[in-house]
Specification:
A 3-stranded antiparallel β-sheet has the order 4-7-6. Strands 1-5 form a two-stranded antiparallel sheet. A two-stranded antiparallel sheet has the order 2-3. Helix 3 crosses helix 4. Helices cover 38% and strands 13% of the residues. The chain has a domain of 160 residues. By secondary structure, it is α+β, with helices and mostly antiparallel strands.
Amino acid sequence: MSIEADWADRIRSIARECDQRTVGHKLVDRLDFDLFIAVEEVAGWQEFQTVFTARFPPESGWAFRGHGVANWPLATAIERACLKNVEFGNPEFPDSPIVVPMGVLPHTFERDLLLRFQRRAHHYVPDPPDDDDQLDWLALMQHHGVPTRLLDWTFSPYVALYFAVESSLPDTDCSVWAIDTYWLSKQARENSLTDEGFPTDPHKRALNEYLNRNLFNPGNPNVVVVADPIRMNERAAAQQGVFLCDLSQEPS
């Protein structure tokens, strides 16, 4: 059976199971994420070439992301910063530190980082974005290592493969993720019909204007969008970079 057929059968099985559950069950959740992934293993350059040439032709809208360790999740820098555990010293038991969640909501932390970054950026950035260009500000923060909700992807599988191999560990599998950005954009539009301001035209500038108005608003559609800032830095442009952006302000 092909990987596509196996994945389709799995999704149909999940849908049937969902129909049998109680009304209001949340099917798409972090714990369910792995159920929606199709995996194909390759053992060398030739196999990689064969798979990617056959499945992901150029200009087909597929974007890629390389991970040095195959089981690393798709988590943004702001999620990793806020959801990690923090160790506190225990004077009575110095060899047994107290480990607790950091307990900071990612979207609250991101807003605070943005305001701090904007106040200081003019000292280091010769031509900063306009105050209202929030997407460009987040992209600039990401470029300078400040955690944001943006997740870096590239339209080049070879760039993604480079980052996967470059950060890989001995005797540990690395991975290249792939996602159909055309499908993702279509789903975002169809699931945002209750928001009259969400652009039905997939034009990049219209979406960017919408994101600049709404990135930090409560009540946004619970969708992930393909974000392509107008002012893309040279490194991102050379790497055929693009971002995925979680529009929702729901606590993670």
